[in-house]
Specification:
Helices cover 31% and strands 29% of the residues.
């Protein structure tokens, strides 16, 4: 299906035209039919001769209902712009043209309706004026057809023109994320809450769960049923008009301007950086505005940064991404002030003096198609899924641009990465100089120092900083080879035990050498000593030497036999044998016997 919205001044015959094309009545309210005036959005559908299925969203033309008109045209990719051939271009025509231009719609057909009431010369003049008025908009080269919805003149030509426009549209993204702007919410007896909207991308299926982003709160809802063109469907693909029967939500909790989105796939924001695309310079617009996007109309406050860029603070959060088009309207009038394109969907907070100036300079230099490097630079590091949500990358498999490094799903700005590396290296070096016996900077302390967004980034920072990681601590390369002020004392022990491997020093000997528990632990970390507990330390080679002696004994052997074979004391023999047991080199058979493990 394709979706087309009408546009045009009041009494241009838009509803009559839709009725003639579809055979359906688009005016839903009895008051509308009684007064002959479209007040709210109307819906109808048909199949063109080409086989293309088309749904029409009929919008009101009166200036008092401009908000309703914007809700109808906002999500539609194609517009049927109607001008009465007998009356010609009107003030409301300009309002609707401004809305079309603001939304960046560039697919459509110009219809000169009520041709039965105008001469050929009049039709030619109205078309000429219409072309001039549409110059500079996406409809400036749109095909134009003169029709009469009353006697049928030109309807076949109009159907053919619509078919031609629709045939040139790009294929919708069937697998994309869903963002359905709600335009109606009502209750059907026996079914419950039903909402309608235009599905522009993604596929909906019965049983799907969606996030409802409402005016007052957000919640998860499930799709109980689907309809398109009054027919029940198991699934609906874009672009389509769709009705969703929802579970888990009361009809009073959802209304026009709310959005149903793929769970977890859309960011929500109430502050955006924008670029003017049409209309009045931002320096000349009021601070308080009404912002229209999709079917939503949200009060907002605008802070200009020059004529073409501004910071927009919305009254509530909306699911907005890079490139979304907004319509700005003065709440005190019925006219469109202009259009805007979102350049920065998640701008930084402006807390310090000069932040606004720096951000404005960045905003003015942003590429409308997306500044990935700039976004990563602002944040330092960002998860690639968030970049995808913001519309900056196509998906999680995207390649990072120059100046950005990827570590798994995290993208890090190279200068930020280098700053982390420098800061970590300096902290480790300072600790080493201050306390040579320290095992290094703990991983937790390093995380607290750098405040990384994900602890898994730390190993990459360590590697890039030319540091080493061992036993939960970070140290300088080679720093584990030196014991600084206790080097001489440890060398003395090594010489002494090198001559008598199983003569461990007594506590008073260690104290005389200035070796306490902390110093011995440092020597053990560096592989210079082996601690067996209870203050017993030997050289790391002692277990291998012990195994040679024990292997020569008759098996099994007693603790006393082992002590004698090693020519040592029970104080040393017992913890040494327990150490050998723990390594699986010896096997304890009972309270008094062991054997060498085979």
């Amino acid at each position: 299906m394709h979706v087309i919205a009408t546009a045009g001044h009041v009494d241009s015959g838009k509803s009559t035209l839709v009725r003639a094309l579809t055979g359906m009545e688009p005016d839903r309210w009895e008051e509308e039919r009684r007064r002959g005036l479209t007040i709210d959005l109307g819906y109808a559908w048909t199949t063109l001769q080409s086989g293309q299925e088309v749904a029409f969203v009929d919008v009101p033309g009166h200036e008092r209902f401009l908000g309703n008109m914007l809700a109808g045209i906002g999500p539609a990719p194609v517009v049927c712009f109607v001008v009465a051939a007998d009356e010609g271009w009107q003030a409301q025509s300009s309002d609707h043209r401004d809305a079309v231009a603001a939304l960046g719609i560039h697919n459509g057909v110009v219809v000169l309706n009520r041709a039965d009431r105008a001469s050929a010369r009049r039709i030619e003049d109205v078309l000429s004026r219409t072309r001039k008025e549409l110059a500079g908009t996406g409809l400036q080269d749109a095909p134009a057809v003169a029709v009469s919805a009353v006697d049928g003149t030109g309807l076949e030509e109009l159907r053919a023109a619509l078919g031609g426009v629709l045939a040139r549209l790009p294929a919708p993204d069937l697998a994309g994320r869903v963002r359905l702007w709600v335009d109606r919410s009502f209750t059907i007896t026996g079914s419950g809450t039903v909402v309608t909207g235009t599905l522009a991308a993604g596929t909906l299926a019965r049983g799907d769960r969606l996030d409802l982003l409402g005016h007052d709160s957000s919640r998860t809802v499930s799709v109980r049923g689907l309809q398109s063109r009054d027919k029940a469907c198991a699934s609906v693909e874009p672009v389509s008009r769709v009705a969703l029967n929802l579970r888990d939500v009361a009809p009073t909790d959802i209304r026009r301007g709310d959005a149903l989105v793929t769970p977890g796939a859309w960011p929500t924001t109430s502050v955006v950086g924008i670029q003017r695309t049409t209309g009045v310079a931002y320096t000349d617009v009021p601070e308080q505005l009404m912002v229209h996007v999709g079917t939503a109309a949200v009060p907002a406050r605008l802070r200009p940064f020059g004529a073409d860029h501004a910071r927009l603070v919305l009254e509530r959060k909306l699911p907005l991404v890079l490139g979304d088009r907004l319509v700005l309207r003065d709440p005190g009038s019925h006219s469109v002030l202009g259009g805007a394109r979102i350049l920065d969907p998640e701008p930084p907070a402006l807390r310090r003096r000069g932040d606004g100036t720096r951000w404005a300079e960045r905003l003015a230099g942003m590429d409308p198609t997306g500044d990935v490097t700039g976004e990563v630079a602002i944040r330092g590091a960002i998860h690639v899924d968030q970049l995808h949500k913001l519309g900056l990358v196509a998906g999680p498999d995207a390649e990072p641009p120059a100046g950005v490094k990827a570590f798994g799903a995290w993208w890090v700005h190279v200068p930020v990465l280098e700053a982390w590396q420098h800061r970590l290296h300096a902290a480790v070096q300072a600790l080493q100089e201050r306390d040579p016996l320290a095992p290094g900077l703990s991983m937790g302390a390093a995380q607290d120092l750098l405040k990384l967004p994900d602890g898994r980034l730390l190993s990459h920072v360590i590697d890039g900083a030319a540091l080493k990681q061992d036993g939960g601590h970070i140290h300088l390369p080679g720093s584990q080879d030196s014991l600084g002020p206790i080097e001489h004392a440890i060398a003395t022990l090594e010489a002494r035990m090198g001559a008598d491997a199983f003569r461990a020093p007594e506590s008073d000997e260690l104290a005389a050498l200035g070796l306490g528990a902390r110093e011995l632990a440092a020597a053990e970390r560096k592989g210079r000593l082996l601690g067996l507990g209870d203050g017993v330390v030997l050289l790391p080679t002692a277990p291998a030497l012990a195994m040679r002696a024990l292997a020569r004994l008759d098996q099994p052997f007693t603790t006393s036999q082992a002590r004698q074979a090693l020519d040592t004391t029970r104080r040393i023999a017992v913890p040494l044998l327990e150490y050998l047991d723990s390594r699986g080199w010896t096997e304890r058979l009972d309270a008094g016997h062991r054997k060498v493990a085979r």
